[in-house]
Specification:
alpha+beta; 27% helix; 4 strands; two-stranded antiparallel ribbon; single chain
C-alpha cells in the first residue's frame, strides 16, 4: 500500500501495517471501496484513514502540523508482517519507499 503526502515532508509517520478499513479504502472516493470503485479501476488502500489514523491526524493538526507537510506510510512492504514488531533490518528496507 503506497503512502501519501508530500515527497519532501517535514515529518514522516510510519505505521506498522494497515488495518482492515485501510486495506479497503478507495483513494479516489476517499471512503471504503465499493464494487463501483473496482469497476472504475480506482486504487484501493491508504494508510491512517481508520479511527486511530483519524485521531493521529487530529493530534498532529492540533500540534500545528498541516497535512500538507506530513507523509503517511507504513512498514507493511518492509516487514515480515503478522502480529510481530518489525526489526530494525526490516525497517531499514523501507528507505527505498520513503
Amino acid at each position: 500500500m503506497p503512502g501519501f503526502g508530500p515527497k519532501s515532508p517535514e515529518l514522516v509517520v510510519i505505521g506498522e501495517a494497515p488495518a482492515a478499513v485501510e486495506d479497503r479504502w478507495c483513494q479516489i472516493c476517499q471512503r471504503p471501496a465499493t464494487t463501483k470503485c473496482a469497476q472504475l479501476g480506482h486504487k484501493i488502500g491508504q494508510p491512517f484513514v481508520g479511527q486511530s489514523g483519524q485521531l493521529l491526524r487530529k493530534a498532529l493538526k492540533e500540534a500545528g502540523f498541516s497535512e500538507s507537510r506530513v507523509r503517511f506510510t507504513n512498514a507493511a512492504r518492509c516487514s515480515a508482517g503478522g502480529a510481530i514488531n518489525p526489526t530494525m533490518t526490516e525497517l531499514r528496507r523501507c528507505n527505498m519507499y520513503l
